[in-house]
Design brief:
The structure holds 2 protein chains of 2 kinds. Chain A is α/β, with parallel strands linked by helices. Chain A has 2 domains: 220 residues, HUPs (Rossmann fold); 31 residues, no CATH class. Helix content of chain A is 30%, strand content 27%. Helix content of chain B is 34%, strand content 19%. In chain B, strand 7 and strand 8 form a beta hairpin. Chain B is globular. Classes of the chains: A alpha/beta, B alpha+beta. Chains A and B meet through strand 12 and helix 5 of A and helix 10, strand 14 and helix 11 of B. Strand 12 of chain A pairs antiparallel with strand 14 of chain B.
Chain lengths: 266, 465
């Protein structure tokens, strides 16, 4: 079975985002870039499938490839995915892709996927930076693939008959969906902790193949952006808390007064 | 009464009477000063009336040093200002009541680094960490808190406000050596000699980057060999690896973290080392070169290399530290279940020179087997020859048996050139051990110092002596 995990790079969740000199760009200074966490769950799920297939006695071959698209810095995240245990990667590289919209990205990825062998495409359910879930769905549409979103876990893998059973949460219940492969599935966290890379895994990752694809500005432009980021705004900072000073009875009186006269909630 | 107010409601006070040792304290009042002047006023009043005053920090002490034995509890939680962060001279001046982790985070946000990292940094105050000379996992590289304290403002029992500064000179023969740097009299004095109201501490340039990791071993002995070799390697002119932390988990420690570990702990692992390694963008000290060196070092020291995990991302690094902290915190909870029956957690804090680590661990194991007590969890700062043994006693009888073993171990620690309290201090529960480490005449001279600075013995009575 050939699994391809589509990954993107996002700022670390701990990063303090600053808006850049242009209002529609963020300031890249000091940003730590990581694999989009939901894509990391997808890598973990792919590696678990590989481990399972390796031991089920039916089919012993399963490969996990990564497919990424982005500026040069994306390579670091690709290496992290390879260190986790993916076998190889394809990297569509161009610095102009930094602010490409989900439509262009999905077009580029889909056109590369047309040249690749796969049974299962996995990706995260959304990007944590721009909260977008569009790319994998556009790809499924472009390639005419069955698509299941927000999958928590795989409850059955039938490699011989090319079927996979997905479990996803739906309004307080679980939907169990059996899908024929090839298919594209977007992943939620479920019970998966993305594995830590082992020291030997990191060393091996340095020797694993990353096939680089360069794209021209014209190729990117030909797809035509469908959306444009006009500007970023930081969330409004929370109002400061009001702290009442003095002894407890005074503080209680002041609090009650404020609740009644300022907040008008009592 | 003077201008400070006493909280005398026992329902409030009882929440402040013990610390992480569960030592049963008691007090008549709680005071929360907001300034040095107020602390001075409080001590003048207490001294004139001979009322004990115990500064409690955030009560994370493991030795009862923050559990008041009567009198007033002095809570510094209202003194939380960072007065200055000096980028040029790399120091910070702050009041004592800020949570140490918040202090460190503020410093880090300024692009600087405050090195001391006690395991309880999210539960202890900046001032408390100085009053106890706290240390932690990164002490392996950076040393303990003392090294970073440049100056102190201390209020003495009389109410006198003392401003003292570490001399920034290489040579000094003026007076007895232990007194030449007056700051050192108060660092680690457990609230017995004065109340720290401001501290100026040295800051470092923020390390460029680091990775964490966990290496597993098939036996504790092989794990200890690895640690001894790490120290030997550091003596080389060009050490291949330069960890800033080298921390032990024995097999029982691994059992504690296994249920919610985000990585696989191999079933055949009987011990593990949690480590952190800093690196720079320079190619010789870069990530790749150092990972290569670590791999070679681990391979030649019988680590289970294929299972050795590396934490490169901030959230993974934080998770490793959380796991490290989980061991003492879960043992604290476990011990707490038996305090009513006269049992509880008994932890050791001894350390020995690293070349004697095998000897003392073998000795302690033999004693434990002879006494037929349950296996302790062994974890902690092994890189400093400082593993913590945590025993859980279920009743008073078991506690007595365990304490006998601990006393015998501590006596041996002294003969091996070690110390009985490497980081937790003496507090109220380790006073009986003083005689093993110091001759009676030296203990007397320490008592004389206490007597001269606090003649009415109002400051943290019951601590140390």
């Amino acid at each position: 079975m050939n699994i391809i995990v589509i990954i993107r790079q996002t700022p670390d969740t701990e990063t303090k985002i600053k808006i850049g000199s242009q209002p529609n760009k963020i300031d890249p200074t000091g940003i730590t870039w990581i694999i989009n966490p939901y894509d990391e769950f997808a890598i973990e799920k792919a590696l678990k499938i590989k481990e399972q297939i390796g031991t089920d006695g039916v089919e012993t071959h399963c490969s996990v490839s990564l497919l990424a698209c982005g500026p040069q810095r994306t390579e670091e995240s690709i290496r992290q995915g390879l260190a986790m245990g993916a076998d190889r990667a394809v990297f569509i590289k161009d610095d102009s892709l930094e602010y490409a919209d989900p439509y262009v990205i999905s077009k580029l990825l889909a056109s590369e996927l047309k040249n690749m062998q796969y049974d299962l495409l996995l990706s995260g359910k959304k990007l944590i930076d721009i909260e977008s879930s569009q790319i994998p769905i556009f790809i499924a549409e472009e390639l005419g693939l069955t698509h299941v979103s927000f999958v928590m876990k795989f409850t059955g893998i039938d490699a011989a008959n090319k079927k996979i059973t997905c479990d996803r949460e739906a309004e307080g219940s679980h939907e169990i969906i059996e899908v024929s492969l090839p298919a594209l599935i977007t992943c939620d966290r479920g019970e998966d902790f993305p594995r830590y890379a082992s020291i030997t895994g990191i060393m091996k990752a340095k020797k694993k193949e990353i096939k680089e694809i360069t794209v021209s500005k014209e190729e990117i432009e030909k797809f035509g952006q469908r959306t444009e980021i006009v500007s970023f705004d930081l969330p409004l900072s929370r109002k400061e808390a009001k702290i009442f000073e003095g002894e407890i009875p005074e503080k209680v009186s002041a609090l009650v007064k404020a609740l009644r006269e300022e907040a008008k909630v009592i | 009464m003077s201008g400070f107010s006493l909280i005398t409601d026992q329902d409030i006070i009882k929440g402040f009477c013990t610390d992480s040792s569960n030592y049963p304290g008691h007090a008549e009042a709680l005071i929360r000063p907001k300034s040095t002047a107020e602390v001075s006023e409080i001590l003048k009043e207490a001294n004139s009336k001979k009322i004990p005053v115990t500064a409690i920090g955030n009560r994370s002490s493991l030795t009862g040093s923050a559990a008041a034995e009567g009198g007033w509890i002095l809570d510094t939680s209202q003194m939380t200002k960072i007065i200055e962060i000096n980028q040029g001279e790399k120091f910070a001046l702050a009041e004592p009541g800020m949570m140490l982790s918040d202090f460190k985070k503020t410093i880090l946000d300024e692009g600087l680094f405050y090195a001391p990292d006690p395991t309880s940094e999210k539960e202890c105050f900046f001032g408390g960490s100085i009053a106890t000379n706290a240390s932690g996992s990164r002490t392996f590289k950076y040393g303990s808190t003392k090294k970073y304290v440049r100056a102190l403002e201390v209020v003495l029992a009389s109410g006198e406000i003392l401003n003292i500064r570490r001399l920034n000179i290489e040579k000094n023969t003026f007076g007895y050596l232990p007194f030449q740097n007056m700051v050192d009299i108060f660092v680690g004095s457990e609230g017995t000699l004065g109340i720290i109201t401001k501290a100026e501490v040295e800051l470092l340039v923020k390390p460029e980057n680091f990775f964490g990791g966990m290496a597993f071993f098939k036996t504790l002995s092989e794990c200890l060999d690895f640690v001894v070799n790490v120290r030997k390697n550091l003596i080389n002119q060009t050490p291949t690896i330069t960890p800033r932390a080298v921390e032990l988990f024995d097999h029982l420690g691994l059992d504690i973290i296994r249920p919610d570990s985000p990585f696989k702990i191999p079933a055949n692992a009987k011990a593990a080392i949690f480590f952190e390694q800093e690196y720079t963008s320079d190619s010789n000290n870069g990530c790749e070169a150092l990972l290569n060196n670590w791999l070679s070092f681990l391979e030649s020291n019988k680590a289970l290399v294929d299972d050795t995990i590396i934490a490169e991302q901030a959230k993974q690094q934080e998770e490793l530290r959380r796991l490290r902290h989980k061991v003492p915190s879960s043992l604290f909870e476990e011990g707490g279940k038996y305090t009513k029956e006269g049992g509880g957690k008994i932890s050791t804090d001894w350390s020995v020179p690293i070349n004697r680590i095998h000897e003392i661990i073998d000795f302690a194991k033999k004693l434990k087997e002879e006494a037929r007590i349950e296996d302790p969890v062994i974890y902690g700062h092994i890189g400093n020859g400082h593993p913590h043994y945590n025993f859980i006693s279920k009743n008073a009888e078991q506690k007595k048996q365990i304490l006998e073993v601990v006393h015998k171990t501590c006596k041996r620690v002294i003969t091996l050139g070690g110390t009985i309290a490497a980081e937790h201090g003496i507090g109220k529960i380790k006073k009986d051990f003083m005689k093993y480490q110091y001759p009676e005449s030296i203990i007397k001279s320490m008592k004389s110092l206490k007597q001269s600075l606090d003649p009415n013995n109002i400051l943290a009575p019951g601590n140390i002596f």
